[in-house]
Design brief:
With about 200 residues, the chain is mainly alpha-helical. It has one domain. About 80% of the residues lie in helices and about 0% in strands. It contains 6 helices and no strands. The model has no long low-confidence stretch (mean pLDDT about 85).
């Protein structure tokens, strides 16, 4: 991946290929990654657990969630770079934070939780199951609101006050849901990590 990124930077810095070719390549790459992510997501939700809850199925579910967020973070990073370049935008935009939010709050968090589930019974906690559901609703909701706000900033769309307030309100709701889900996670971690042996 580092080689591909370095090669892309070199090609663009020294104008080794026309911008049209690069745009077509990244469009194709983005479409391929989007399709792979969609197929992965379909298979993720199609998978049915065995009779027992927890154990391997939960570990697979957590790891698959981390992989989905990794794919989305890569798509978010490419989208930010290409969308701002295509629109000749040099200012600040919330699109810049998409990649980092999905990578840290998505992939890294679920990789950490996979390790915790491997050494504890975290997946059996009711508060963890509630966290998992609420978090996987609120994080994509928050990212979608960041995406909408970022596109508006790049396109320099002037919103009338009610619509601007609606976007800010939905972003606030997504952050509140994130806070509630993180409280549920802390409660479940406290139960499994601090219980008497």
């Amino acid at each position: 991946m580092a080689f591909m990124m370095a090669l892309g930077i070199v090609i663009r810095t020294f104008s080794l290929m026309p911008d049209e070719w690069i745009a077509i390549f990244y469009t194709g790459l983005g479409a391929a990654l989007s399709m792979a992510g969609a197929l992965f997501g379909r298979n993720y939700f199609k998978y049915k657990p065995q009779k027992s809850t927890g154990g391997q199925w939960t570990m697979k579910k957590i790891m698959n969630t981390a992989i989905v967020y990794f794919i989305l973070s890569m798509i978010g990073g490419v989208f930010y770079r290409e969308f701002t370049k295509f629109n000749d935008f040099l200012g600040e935009t919330t699109l810049k934070a998409l990649h980092g939010h999905l990578l840290v709050l998505g992939m890294f968090l679920f990789l950490f939780l996979a390790v915790v589930c491997k050494v504890t019974d975290l997946e059996k906690e009711k508060s963890f199951q509630r966290f998992f559901l609420l978090y996987n609703i609120s994080l994509p909701f928050m990212v979608i609101m960041m995406l909408i706000r970022g596109v508006i900033q790049v396109k320099n769309i002037i919103l009338v006050r009610p619509w601007d307030s609606v976007i800010s309100g939905f972003a606030g709701i997504s952050h509140i849901l994130m806070m509630v889900s993180m409280i549920l996670l802390l409660i479940s971690l406290n139960k499994v990590l601090c219980k008497d042996k």
